[in-house]
C-alpha cells in the first residue's frame, strides 16, 4: 500500500491562513540574513560567507581555509562555524568599541550608509507588534522608518530588545499587553548600516548591552542557547503562542533545530503552525517537508526565485492592508466584528455592543430604521469642530436634516453636558473629549470616558434611536497617544452609560476601529475588554530599573477608573516621583512630557528609570 508524500505548499494556498493569523495579531516574522541581502549590484549587507571573510580580515587572520579563498566554492555550515569560532576568539583581545566596529564594517561592502532591501520594505508595509531577528543590522528599523514617513504616519519608536532577563520579560509581556513595537534581536544587535547606531538605539548603555550579546562563533551560540535558561524559556513561550513566519532564515542551522526540537519535546506542538518561505531550487535535499512539519512544526512554502519574496509580502499586505476607508474585498472570509451583550440589573433589555473593523460605510447606517451617528470633534468658540469623522459623512447616504459642509452654528450642546452636541434635530451627534474648563481646549485621556457617556445619554434622551454608530474618539493622526489608550477609555464610557441608567430605546452601540494598533491587540487578547466593560478596577504594570541596572516588574491594582503616575508609584511604595525618569509604553507623543500627574490607563506600562543625580 503506497503512502502519500508530504509536500510543501504554495503561497497562494497559505495566504488566507496567513492573513487570518495576522488579523488576529498572531503572525510574527522571524527575519534572517537573507532579508538583508540585495540583488547583484545593489548595496546591501554581505552574505554570511563574505561577512566571515571580512571579519577574519578585521581580526588579522591572514590564512583563510581553502573553501573561503576560492569564490567558486561554497563552504559547508560546519566550515563556517569553525572559522567564525576562530575569528571571534581572536577578536576577544580587541577593546569592545574596536570589536564592534570590526563587526559593523564586516556587515556591508561599502563604508557609506546603505538603503533597506526591497524585501524588508515590503515586510514593513504591515504593522508588526513583534519581529524576531537573527541579524545584527538596522535594515528592518530603517525600512520601517521609511514606510512611516512615506505614509505620513507619526514616528513610533521601536523597542530593540535582546536576551537579558529584563528584555525577555518585556518580550513576554508584549504577547499579552499593549506595548510599543518590538524587534527581538536574538543574536545581538549593532546597527550602523543604514544610519548611525544611536538612531535606532538612542541609549549608549543599551547599545553596549546589545553589542555584547552578538554571537557568531560556536561557543557563543552554545552559551546563548544553553547557558541562558530564561532566554530559552522566553523563546519557547513565543514559539508556542505565536505563528512564526521564517523569512531569509537559515532554518536548519544546528542550534535552531536543537532549540525547536527541545521546545517540541518538552511542551509538545502548539495550536498554530509556523511557516517558512524557502527557495525550491536552493537545497532540494535539505528541505524535507515531512521532517520540517513533524519534527520542527514548520510548514515549508516554496518559491522559485528570491525576487518573488517581496511580491509575496506585498500580496499579504494587500490582503490585510488597513486603510482609512472600508476594507477592500478579499479573496477569503474575514472576521470584521466582535459583539458583546450588556445587561445591567436595572435594564429591561440588553444592549448589544459591536466592535467593528474599518471605517463606517453606507451599507452599515440606516437612518430610516432609527440609526444615529456620533462623530469625534475638537472645540472652538464653544462649538464642536469635527475632524476626519466629518469626511465619513460624505460616504454615507444623506442624513435627513444634514447638508455638507456642516454649519458650526447648528451644533447645540446637549443637556447631557458640554461634551455632547446634536446637529439641529438630526441623527448626528458629536462628542468633544476635551477638558471643559473655561478657556481651555486640552486633550485629556481622563475626560474620554465621561464624554462618551454624555454623548450616548444625549442620543438616548431623544427617545428616537435604536442603534448608534460611534466613530473613533480622540484617535486621529494628530492625537497625543497610541489609539489603543482612548479606545480603552471609550469602552469605559460605554460601561458607565449602560450602568448609570437603564436604556429605554437604544438597543445597539457600534464602535468602529480603523487602526491595526487597536484591532490586532483586541484579536490577540491583549485588551481586557470584559474587565473594562465590567468594573472601574484596573490592573497596571510598573517596570522599574534601579541605578544598579537591576530590573523588576510590579503589578498593582487600583480602584480608580483613571489613575495617575503618582498614584501608581504610591501603590508601589515609591513616595517621590522626582527620583525617576518617567516613561509610558506604548508611549505618548514626543512633545508630551510624562509627569507625576499624567493620566495612566490599564493599556499602559509605566517605565521607571533612575534620574541622573548631579555629581
Question: What distinguishing features does this structure have?
Answer:
615 residues, alpha/beta, Leucine Aminopeptidase, subunit E, domain 1, 21 helices, 22 strands, disordered N terminus
Q: Output mean pLDDT.
A: 85
For the largest beta-sheet, the strand count, sense and barrel status come to: 9 strands, mixed
**Which blocks of ≥5 consecutive residues have pLDDT under 50?**
1-6
Q: State the helicity in percent bands.
A: 25-40%
Distance between the termini: 82 Å
Molecular shape: elongated
Number of helices: 21
Protein name: SIR2-like domain-containing protein
List the helices and strands and how they pair.
Layout (H helix, E strand, L loop, with lengths): L10 H13 L3 E5 L16 H12 L6 H4 L7 H15 L4 H11 L11 H6 L6 E4 L5 H12 L8 E3 L3 H10 L7 E4 L11 H4 L3 H9 L5 H9 L2 H13 L1 E5 L6 H14 L6 E6 L9 H8 L1 E6 L4 H13 L16 E6 L8 E7 L13 E10 L2 E4 L2 H5 L17 E4 L2 E7 L4 E5 L15 H15 L4 E4 L13 H17 L7 E6 L2 H8 L5 H4 L5 E8 L5 E8 L4 E2 H7 L8 E6 L13 E2 L4 E6 L5
Helix pairs in contact: 1-15, 2-4, 2-5, 8-12, 17-18
Tell me about this structure:
- The protein has 21 helices and 22 strands.
- By secondary structure, the chain is of the alpha/beta class.
- The protein folds into four domains: 11-44 and 118-320; 46-106, no CATH class; 337-532, 3-Layer(aba) Sandwich (Leucine Aminopeptidase, subunit E, domain 1); 538-610, Ubiquitin-like (UB roll), CATH 3.10.20.
- The strands form four sheets. Strands 8, 9, 10, 11, 12, 13, 14, 15 and 16 form a nine-stranded mixed beta sheet that branches. A seven-stranded parallel beta sheet has the order 3-4-2-1-5-6-7. A four-stranded mixed beta sheet has the order 18-17-22-20, with helices on both faces.
- β5 (243-247), α13 and β6 (274-279) form a beta-alpha-beta unit.
- The longest helix has 17 residues, at 484-500.
- It is elongated and about 85 Å long.
- This is SIR2-like domain-containing protein.
- It holds the Pfam family SIR2_2.
